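JOB MANIFEST
job_type = single_chain_structure
chain_count = 1
residues = 328
[input]
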Amino acid sequence: MIDVPISALEVAVVESGTRGVETLRDTATFARRLELLGYQRLWYAEHHHSPAIGAFPPVVLIAHAAASTSAIRLGSGGVLAPNHAPLMLAEQFGTLAALHPDRIDLGIGRGPGTFDEATARELRRGAGPATDAQYHDDVAAILSFLVDEVALGPLPEPWLLCSSTAGAALAARLGLPIAVAHHIRPDNTFAVLECYRAAFVPSRWCEQPRVVVCVEAICAETEEEAAWRAGPMDVVKAGLLKGLSEIPFPTPADAATHPFTAEERQALAGFRAQQACGTPEAVVRRLAQLATETGADELMLTTPVYDLDARVRSYELIKKHCEATQAP
């Protein structure tokens, strides 16, 4: 049984054979359907220069979804601080929070959002990767601007995205809640949580440690269908293992014929074992295990599968099985 809220992270997959505009048209529909299913919040990730993931600014997707929904919390998972001026981020999310009180989250991350160095430099107007000190200053400036200069009314809820102990230490020092990227670097999850909880300092943002753990979750009626649905993202991951970022998001049928090497299959199987993929019973059991082992206050599910209806169906199966196991 899962006794913590569950939420969703959307990476805006651009499916092979479709255009980015079609992905955009699906975003409001997806948000409305998740709201009807009773999900706690929906976040959007920042990505650039990828044929598999749309380069859609989270702030725009949040505004679009907020206009089409009434209750679900919406936010960034995250906006990448080195790519943006702190004051601009504070103004954007302060405005969203004023328009949609108590519904907006500002999740902040560090990475470039791309594997392409030239694109990363374009995003930063020619500058190289941010240093630790620059990133720390950016996060502090965003928080300061939210309070001291924007202050339009209800503030967005700030979160720090973490996949390393360095990020966890910063979140702890600033007293911010964290979203742990278990779906990206699962081997780091427990070290991140230990560092964060040990060093946490209460702040105006958070009185005690608060943790969301993000998990890749792909659910279907059978194990075979779930594995089939997971196939397209496996192809993308296999490309990343080779250092290739220009991998389109294939159909499940095309993914089923992809020639994975033995080493790739082993790596993918190891990763999947740390996530949640399979039937509703298997997925909810795994999510409950992760919630217990991590002490998460909330689980956030990311479901990178081909086809909007299949993606929503995965979330529906998980939510319904959670509710069934919670029934007296």
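[summary]
The chain is about 50% helix and 15% strand.
The longest strand covers residues 211-219.
exit_status = 0
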